[in-house]
Amino acid sequence: LPTSELSLIARIRSLARGRSAALRVGIGDDAAVLLLPPGSEALVTTDFSLEGTHFRREWHPPESVGHRCLARGLSDIAAMGGDPRAAFLSLALPAGVPQSWVDGFLRGLLRLASRYKVPLAGGDIAESPAGVCADIVVLGSVPSGQALLRSGARPGDVIYVTGQLGISAAVLHALLDGRKVSPKSKNAAPHFWPEPRIAVGRTLRGLATAAIDISDGLSTDLTHLCQESGVGALVREYSIPRGVSFQGSSLHYALHGGEDYELLFTAPAKARVPEKLAGVRITSIGEIIADAKRRLYLTDSHGQRKPLIAAGWQHLASK
Amino acid sequence: LPTSELSLIARIRSLARGRSAALRVGIGDDAAVLLLPPGSEALVTTDFSLEGTHFRREWHPPESVGHRCLARGLSDIAAMGGDPRAAFLSLALPAGVPQSWVDGFLRGLLRLASRYKVPLAGGDIAESPAGVCADIVVLGSVPSGQALLRSGARPGDVIYVTGQLGISAAVLHALLDGRKVSPKSKNAAPHFWPEPRIAVGRTLRGLATAAIDISDGLSTDLTHLCQESGVGALVREYSIPRGVSFQGSSLHYALHGGEDYELLFTAPAKARVPEKLAGVRITSIGEIIADAKRRLYLTDSHGQRKPLIAAGWQHLASK
Fold first, then answer.
1. What interface predicted TM-score (ipTM) does this complex get?
2. How far, in Å, CA of A87 to CA of A121, rounded?
3. Each residue of B171-183: pLDDT tens digit?
4. A126/B88 Cβ within 8 A
5. Which residue in the set A51, A79, A144 is minimally distant from B35, CB to CB?
C-alpha cells in the first residue's frame, strides 16, 4: 500500500478505538474476530455508497456522507430485528480527495457508530480511478429463529410503516432542481441524517410477521416483501404518513421516494400494535391480500382501487 | 435499481443456489442470516478488487478476476485458522461492461466458492463511474479463542512459509513488460488461480503462535506480523522457497512480490512442524528475535546480515 493509504489506516485505527464486548480482535489482523451472544444467529449486510449515485460532494457535507453510508447498513439490521455488532468499511478514494474530506466522512460515520455502540472493526483502503466508492458491511445478531424476514407476510395481515415517508426524496429533488438546502435544517434531517430504526426493529421480534426497510421507496419495497411472501397488498393512499416538514413533499415522494430508512412491516390483524414503538409513530396503511400474481393496489380517497406499480428509488443516476 | 441491475441480481441469485448448513437466509432479504457452530467466534474480512489496481481486463480473463476476488477473502480466513462460512459480493460496474464479462466473473468466483462450500449469501450491485469495483466479504468461524493472530509471535519462534513465493509477481511483471502469458499455463497458475490455504490454516490451530497471509509480499507481511507481535525477525535468504516454475522468478519477487496468498506463520522451536501440511510444503525460513524496534534482517548466503526493508506489493498502480 502507498504511504498515504498506510497513514489513513493508522488514522482510522486511532479514531476507531471504540471497543465492545463482542469485538475480540479489530483492525490490524487478517480478519476481525467477534463473539456473538450464545443462541444467536449472525446477520450480514453490505451496501455501496458511490459518489454520483448515492451522494454528491457539492451537496452533501462529508459528515453526512459518512453518516448515510453507515445508516444504510444499520437500517438493514433494524429491518431484520437485529442488534448491530460491528461495522467494516471498504473505502476507495480517487487521487485528490482532500484529507479534510476523508476526516469529515470518518467523523460522521464514527459518530453514528458510537451512538449505536458499533465498533469499526475492519475494512479495506484503495485508490479509486474515479469517484469515492465506499462499501459498508454491518455484522449483527438476532436470537436464533427470530429474524424478521421479507417472506412471512400472510393474507389478512395489516401493513404498517414507521415515521413519515417522502422527506428524503423531497430534499433530493430540491437539490436536483438547483435549490439550496442546508444540511443543518431540521426539516431536511431525514435526508442528511437518517435515523436507522434499530430500537423499533428489536421490539418487532415476535410481533411482526415480515419486515423490510424503505430504502428504495414504499412501492418498490412493498413489492419486494410481497414477492418474497407470495401475496398481494392493498394500500390506502390517505393513510400513508406523508412527511410535511420539508416543502414540496408529496404523495408521490411518500409512495416512490427512496432513502427514508423507515421500516415497513406486517402483523396479524389480531396483534396489538401500539401507536408508538421506541418513541416512533407507527401507522397502519393497508393490508395483505391473497393474490397469486402478487399485485399491489392503491385505494384513493374516493374509494377507487388502482394498481400500485413499483416506481421506487433509482438514486441520482436516474434523473 | 435499474432493470439491468435487477436482472443481474436475479441471475446471481439463480447461480448462487449453493446452500450450506450455516446459511439460513441468503440473497433476497435485508441481510443474510447464518448460524455459526456453537462455541465459535465469527471472522469477518473485506477486500477490494479494483480494475487497474488489482487486475486489468485485457490481461485477466473474467473467470480469473472472479477467482482472485474471492481468493483474497478466503486467504484471510485461512490466515486466521478459520473455516469460511459465506461470501458477500458488492459489485459496481461501469456502463458498457458486456454481460459475458460479468457472467465469466461470476463463474470464476462461484466455481471457487463451490470448491470450498462457501455460499454467496448476499451483496450489493451498483453502477460505477469508471472501472469495475468489487468488494468481497467473507464470514468465517473459528473455535473460540483459537484464532491465529498476527500478535502471538515470541522470540525464539521459528518462521515458516507454505508453498513457493514470487511466482505471482513474476507473472505480473512479465505482463507489465508486455509479454504474453497464457492464463491456462500451469506455471502461471499461482497468479491467475491462486489457491487459498484453508486446509493448512485449519491444521495450524494450536500449533502456530502467529500467522498472516502473504498478500503484500514476504517483507511487508512479516513486518506487519513483527509490528503486531512487538518482535524482530531474522530471515535466511537461501531458505526462502522461490517459485521457479515461471521464468524470471527471482529472490526479489520471493521477498517483495505480492499476491502469493501463501501463509507465513511462527511456531515454538520445540513444536513439531511436519514437512507438509494438508499436502502443502512447509519451509522454515528464519526465526523471531527480541528487538524493541521490531527490525527485520536478512542473512545472505555468505552469512552477512543486512536489514530487510518492507518493499512489498503496491499492486499495478505502483509501476
1. 0.92
2. 6
3. 999 999 999 999 9
4. no
5. A144
